[in-house]
What does this fold into?
Amino acid sequence: MTEFPGAPTGPSPIDAAGGRRLRVLAAMSGGVDSAVAAARAAEAGHEVTGVHLALSANPQSFRTGARGCCTIEDSRDARRAADVIGIPFYVWDLAERFREDVIDDFVAEYAAGRTPNPCLRCNEKIKFAALLDKAIALGFDAVCTGHYARIVDLPTGERELHRAVDAAKDQSYVLGVLDADQLAHSLFPLGDTTKDVIREEAERRGLAVAKKPDSHDICFIADGDTQGFLAKHLGTATGDIVDADGTKLGEHDGAYGFTIGQRKGLRIGRPAADGKPRYVLDISPVDNTVTVGPAEGLDVLSLTAIRPRWCGAVPAADGRYTAQLRAHGEEVPVSAAVVDGELRVELDTPARGIAPGQAVVLYDGTRVVGSATIAATERRSVNA
It folds into this structure.
C-alpha cells in the first residue's frame, strides 16, 4: 500500500471570486460515480487528492461481475481515473477497521436475529468517521464521495442533507447516519445529476470507467451467497420452523439464514390450511426458532428505534414526517417523537416486512431529518 505523505502545506488558497478553495479528499472506489465526483470537485477549483480505501485483507485480483468494490482491479481503476483527472492518488489500508466495524457487526447482528444494513454502517463507521477523521487530522476540509444525495447550504451557515434529483439512484437513506458536523465536511457533487448523464460525462472526460458496471449487493460477499458467508462464520445450528401457535412445520440449519418477511427457501413440507403462502414473522436466536405465518402478520403499526443520529435539529415532539424503512423501500407518512433518547414512530398505514436491525430514516419533504436503528416493532395480530 502507498502511504500518505501528510497534510497539504501552506495556507488554504482563495479563489478569484473570494470564496474559500477547499482541500478535498476524494474517496475513489474505482467506479464511475466516485471518479466523476472527484473530477467535478477538481473542476470546481478545489485542491483534490484521491484516495482508494483498501477494505479487504485479501482482495481478489478481479471483480466478479458487478459484485463488490474492493478488488485490486478496482484500486487500479481508481488510480487511472486520478491520473486522467490530474490529481494525486493514494491507497489507505482500512481493512482491519472495516472488519471490526462492518463485517463483525454484520455477523453479530444476524446471530442476534436482526437484519443489518452494512452499507449504512460503512458510511457511519468508515467513510464518515475513520476516513473523515483522518482527513481532518491531515488538514483537509472535506471528504468527497460519489453518493447520490444533495447538500443545501442555508443562509445561517447550517447545512441540510436532501434526496438526490435522480430518485432511482438516491442514496440519502444510507447517509441518514451523518450528523451536522460530518455534513459540514462532506461534498456530494452528483446529487443534481442522473446516472445516464454521469456516464456520458465520464466518456467526455476520457475516464475508462465510464461503462463499468455499478457495484451492488454486499461488497465483502463477492459471490452474493450471504447465507453461505454467515454459515462459515456462525456454523450450522439446526432448529425448528414453527407456525404462530408453535406447531413444528420443518427444520433449518441456522436461524441467521432467515430475514423477516422472507417467503422463499423456507423448506416447509406441509401447505398452510388456507393454501396461502407463509412468511418469516419472527427469528428467535435464544431458542433458535423461526416462526412463519400469513402475510398480514408482517403488518407493522409502530416501531421503536435506538441510537438516533440527526442531520440537524432533533425532531419536535409528535412531529409529522415521512419515513423510509428499507434501503429501497417507499416513503410512508408517520408521526415521530424522541422519548427517553429513543425514537418512537407511529405509521399512518401498516408497512410490511420491517425487521429489527434495519434503519428508519425520517424525511421532511426531501430533507433528511435523521436515522435510527429499529429495535422493536408492534405488529398487527396474526388473527386480526
User: Anything to note?
Assistant: The chain has seven helices and 17 strands. The first helix runs from residue 32 to 43. Confidence is low (pLDDT under 50) at residues 1-18. Residues 23-211 form a domain with the Rossmann fold fold (CATH 3.40.50.620).
